[in-house]
Amino acid sequence: MRRHILQLSVTRRCNLHCRHCYQTDADPPPDPPIETIERVFEQFKRLARSYGERGRHVLNLSGGEPTLRGDLEEIIRLAGRRGFAVRLSTNATALDGNRARSLRRAGLSAAQVSLDGAARETHEAIRGPGTWDRVNRGIRALVAAGIPVVLSQVLLPGVNLEEAPHLLDLVVAHRAVGAKFARPVREGAMIRSGWPVEGDYWQVFRDILAHARRTRYRRFLFISDPLAHRLRSAGRDLARGLPGLVTGHCDCRHTRVVEIDASTGDVYYCRLRQCLGNLKSEDLVEMWRCHPLLAELRFRKVPEGCAGCVAWAQCQGGCPAVTAAEAGRPDAPDQACPGPLTASGTMAEDLLHSASRRLSPGPRERLAASCRLVRQALLWRLLRLF
Length: 386
Hints:
Layout: E1 5-9, H1 34-50, E2 57-62, H2 72-81, E3 84-90, H3 97-106, E4 110-114, H4 120-127, H5 131-144, E5 149-154, H6 167-174, E6 178-182, H7 189-193, H8 201-214, E7 220-223, E8 245-246, E9 257-261, E10 266-269, E11 277-278, H9 284-290, H10 292-298, H11 312-315, H12 320-327, H13 346-359, H14 363-383
Parallel strand pairs: 1-2, 1-9, 2-3, 3-4, 4-5, 5-6, 6-7, 7-8
Antiparallel strand pairs: 9-10, 10-11
Helix pairs in contact: 1-2, 2-3, 3-5
């Protein structure tokens, strides 16, 4: 069973002013106390039990910039006692070796570090002067402390699309465990800055995979976008030789990502900025089961432009956070999609060939399948943290 994931904002404060941030606070509210965060944990665990989920859930601590909290280690220890595997979303600019080791001792399992350029000029154009050296120093501190690090990049047309594939080179250079790519949401600073969000993301995803194959990249490669579901179907050779490629993160049919702002109690689904309710006055279990927006996402109707697409079952028409900001409604077709992916011609032959190998595998296919299962089992233990 794929368990729900809690994305918890523990502060609205931040030490940077990124030009693509969807936060809008000019005067952020006070940080929530530990007691409030503990009540959020209890409500989330009650939600998980209502779905029959047991065991360790993933908790992603975010902000703002969570490392600005001096009691972050106490929050991590509390989460560990409540049965969470804790990861951190950070810009890493406030981290040094001592703080990284302290976070590791507290029980931090992994960190996702924002790195929005593969070169100094690009990154600092987005996150401000002087941030390149600070973020790289923070990444080195986390890796040296033994914390698995994923480098995360928001893809911005006209800014970093062309150099996005080279983030993989930085992953290898820093000895990080992987890279993650996502599209921007037209909210907050993105609107104020006037940056465009329309771009050929499908081609960028293909370029990233091509660079990974060319450089024999063997680490995690997360593409957190429903369009990524097409990558497995668009050609038999596109994803071959990339054991760490993960394209199945986004799945709105199950609405698993529960985002809670602990400062206010507001509840969101994933990156959608429509507030679903508030924990101070509403029940999280009822909200998550019955909210009309979530019901709409779980049972989306096939848009006319998606009819016949073999990727629809997983893609579901694209990211609702992106389409809601661009088209005004979350069920609008994704304008970045190049069109329905139909099983005809070469693709049909690939699908038939794959099916025949599964129906009557030879010794070579059986050995390959066994190796694949072992590799997936080993990767899954770390994959659950992302």
